[in-house]
């Protein structure tokens, strides 16, 4: 079953099971005061309403941080696409850049220009969203 997914365009959509983002959520949830939950219970809210109307809006910085950091990590990942998409006509930017070398050597000036072009979208996203990233990390770090 798994070999039928290899060498297809869907193999790049493999899940990225890394657990360090759950630590960010855990720290955010620990920083939310229990008194918010208790006061909502006294007002008659059930668990789903408490989560949807109180906890989830407080988790927006954590969600934004995880989405941004995970998106940049997936975009810059080399190993998973290289492993699951070995075909020359499939691949993401990083693996295509790796395969861009000739039989007699590599044209390093072209590869360097390609590496700069690969870095630019990540740099623009980071520069535009850095306040969300820093706020998300700092709010989760303090208690």
Structural commentary:
The chain has one domain: Orthogonal Bundle (MetI-like fold). Helix content is 67%, strand content 0%. It has seven helices and no strands. The chain has helices at residues 20-31, 34-42, 47-58, 60-76, 79-84, 93-98, 108-141. It is mainly α. Helix 2 packs antiparallel against helix 3 (47-58).
Question: What's the structural blueprint in terms of helices and strands?
Answer:
Elements: H1 20-31, H2 34-42, H3 47-58, H4 60-76, H5 79-84, H6 93-98, H7 108-141
Helix pairs in contact: 1-4, 1-7, 2-3, 4-7
Distance between the termini: 46 Å
Number of domains: 1
CATH class term: Mainly Alpha
H/E element string?
Answer: HHHHHHH
Q: Overall mean pLDDT score?
A: 76
Computed structural class: mainly alpha
Q: How many distinct beta strands? A: 0
Helix fraction, binned, reads 55-70%
Tally of DSSP helical segments: 7
CATH architecture annotation name: Orthogonal Bundle
- Model regions low in confidence, pLDDT < 50 over at least 5 residues: none
Shape: elongated
Gyration radius, rounded: 21 Å
């Amino acid at each position: 079953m798994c070999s039928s997914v290899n060498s297809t365009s869907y193999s790049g959509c493999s899940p990225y099971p890394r657990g360090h983002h759950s630590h960010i959520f855990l720290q955010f949830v620990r920083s939310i005061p229990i008194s918010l939950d208790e006061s909502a219970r006294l007002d008659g809210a059930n668990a789903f309403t408490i989560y949807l109307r109180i906890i989830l809006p407080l988790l927006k910085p954590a969600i934004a941080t995880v989405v941004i950091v995970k998106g940049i990590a997936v975009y810059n990942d080399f190993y998973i696409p290289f492993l699951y998409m070995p075909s020359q006509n499939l691949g993401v930017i990083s693996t295509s850049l790796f395969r861009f070398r000739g039989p007699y050597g590599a044209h390093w000036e072209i590869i360097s220009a390609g590496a700069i072009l690969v870095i630019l979208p990540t740099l623009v996203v980071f520069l535009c969203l850095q306040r969300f990233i820093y706020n998300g990390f700092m709010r989760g770090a303090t208690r």
